[in-house]
Design a protein that fits this description.
two-stranded antiparallel sheet; 6 strands; about 10% helix
Length: about 80
């Protein structure tokens, strides 16, 4: 499945016959209006979990294949932190 964004960026998601959905690792996408995205999910029956534990408003949801996705409010400073898992 290919997702095209208005600015030309793309996100490609695919599966293989022995595919296992990711439970921990995941892509994170930014939304300019997280509240509007949340309302869109509500209007279309898309399940999600809201979270601000990391100090950033965000939602976690699953793609149609079961992969974990994160959507964060645009405008927060991105900080990379190394963590051992």
């Amino acid at each position: 499945m290919w997702f095209g964004l208005p600015d030309g960026r793309q996100l490609h998601v695919g599966v293989t016959p022995d595919f296992v959905a990711r439970q921990k690792g995941h892509p994170a996408l930014r939304s300019p209006d997280l509240a509007a995205f949340q309302a869109h999910c509500d209007a279309h029956g898309v399940a999600y979990r809201a979270d601000a534990e990391a100090g950033v408003p965000r939602l976690f949801l699953r793609d149609p294949f079961g992969n974990r996705l994160e959507v964060v409010q645009e405008g927060h400073p991105s900080v990379w932190a190394h963590a051992s898992h």
